[in-house]
């Protein structure tokens, strides 16, 4: 009988008290059905040597939540350790959106009241991008619709991007009260150049798939009905390469992006504080309420010597003599606690 080297390996480990079954589950890959994912679809296609992670919130244009980021990280970790997987594909459910970044609902509800939770949220956001870039396997962005904000930062983290013809790309940070500093300001200049980056992140105009291809933001544009065929062709080409050479090629290609990555912690800290202030509160509220932001009104407040940061009621600097309430907004005429008139 042929020697069972795998059993001999397991027996040696168990001899030293090592939990082989636990090791196998963590370091050899699991059946996707074992994961109880709620916001993503995780699939493995062993006949193609490929895994696919689908952001599954089409009703919110595949905008991600903090809990969804955790799920994406778990799927990426599993695909990374599975030797039956050579290529990872990331896409969005449906045909309207690839990903539109962080969910505006959570941004407008959670972080204005508990901004320190954004600092924790960033742990999983950054880890998702880190895993895409360091998993040692090619990651393809299958772009099936609109790509906005953090969705484009996922696209930038991926190695290859194949887009449907109807895809659109936009960095809406400055119009919603945010900054595209979770990958876009770091990696777009390396990908499309400095001036085009500034046009996207400052002017904020969207570009179509054709322009994205011309600028180098994607590798290929195809009709939507041929998107899977195009992705499969690239998967086949990537699979038929030496895996160790592929892994180190990816490391080398990431070098300059890794240098730019050092500003991530700066962005994390600044945004954590910023999301409790007036600009994002107004920006995300306007987005959810489907109304225009009064940008000029905000500028006029500053011009008049008031503080637009705490729009619309001013900086929290007033004090109530009657009840002792502190940190009342500057424009309040009456105390929000006892109702007394403020001086």
Question: Can you describe what's shown?
Answer:
The structure is a single chain. The chain has 343 residues and is α/β, with parallel strands linked by helices. The chain folds into two domains: 17-274, Alpha-Beta Complex (2-enoyl-CoA Hydratase, Chain A, domain 1), CATH 3.90.226.10; 294-329, no CATH class. Helix content is 47%, strand content 14%. It has helices at residues 5-15, 20-27, 66-81, 104-109, 116-134, 150-157, 173-176, 184-192, 194-203, 209-215, 227-239, 243-253, 255-260, 264-274, 278-289, 295-303; strands at 40-45, 50-55, 87-92, 97-99, 139-143, 146-148, 160-164, 168-170, 207-208, 220-222, 316-318, 328-329. A six-stranded mixed sheet has the order 1-2-3-5-7-10, sandwiched between helices. Strand 1 (40-45) and strand 2 form a beta hairpin. The longest helix has 19 residues, at 116-134.
Q: Number of helix segments?
A: 16
Order of helices and strands: HHEEHEEHHEEHEEHHHEHEHHHHHHEE
Q: What is the CATH architecture assignment of the largest domain?
A: Alpha-Beta Complex
Q: Please indicate the count of domains.
A: 2
Structural class label: alpha/beta
């Amino acid at each position: 009988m042929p020697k069972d080297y795998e059993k001999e390996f397991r027996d040696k480990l168990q001899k030293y008290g090592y939990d082989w079954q636990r090791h196998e589950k963590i370091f050899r890959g699991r059946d996707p059905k074992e994961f109880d994912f709620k916001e993503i679809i995780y699939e493995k296609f062993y006949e193609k040597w490929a895994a696919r992670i689908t952001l599954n919130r089409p009703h919110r244009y595949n905008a991600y939540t903090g809990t969804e980021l955790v799920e994406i990280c778990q799927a990426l970790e599993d695909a990374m350790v599975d030797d039956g997987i050579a290529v990872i594909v990331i896409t969005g459910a449906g045909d309207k959106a690839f990903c539109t970044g962080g969910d505006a609902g959570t941004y407008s509800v959670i972080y204005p009241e508990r901004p320190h939770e954004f600092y924790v949220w960033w742990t999983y956001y950054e880890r998702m991008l880190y895993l895409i870039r360091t998993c040692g396997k090619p990651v393809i962005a299958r772009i099936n619709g609109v790509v906005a904000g953090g969705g484009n930062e996922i696209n930038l983290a991926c190695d290859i991007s194949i887009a449907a013809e109807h895809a659109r790309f936009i960095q809406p940070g400055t119009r919603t009260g945010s900054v595209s500093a979770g990958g876009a300001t770091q990696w777009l200049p390396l990908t499309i150049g400095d001036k085009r980056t500034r046009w996207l992140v400052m002017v904020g105009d969207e570009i179509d798939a054709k322009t994205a291809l011309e600028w180098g933001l994607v590798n290929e544009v195809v009709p939507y009905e041929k998107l899977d065929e195009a992705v499969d062709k690239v998967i086949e080409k990537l699979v038929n390469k030496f895996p160790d050479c592929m892994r180190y090629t990816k490391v080398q290609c990431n070098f300059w992006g890794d240098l730019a990555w050092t500003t991530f912690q700066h962005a994390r800290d600044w945004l954590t504080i910023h999301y409790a202030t007036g600009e994002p509160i107004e920006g995300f509220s306007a987005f959810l309420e489907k109304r225009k932001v009064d940008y000029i009104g905000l500028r006029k407040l500053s011009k008049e010597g008031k503080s637009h940061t705490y729009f619309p009621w001013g900086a929290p600097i007033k004090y109530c003599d009657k009840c002792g309430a502190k940190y009342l907004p500057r424009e309040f005429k009456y105390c929000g606690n006892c109702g007394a008139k403020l001086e």
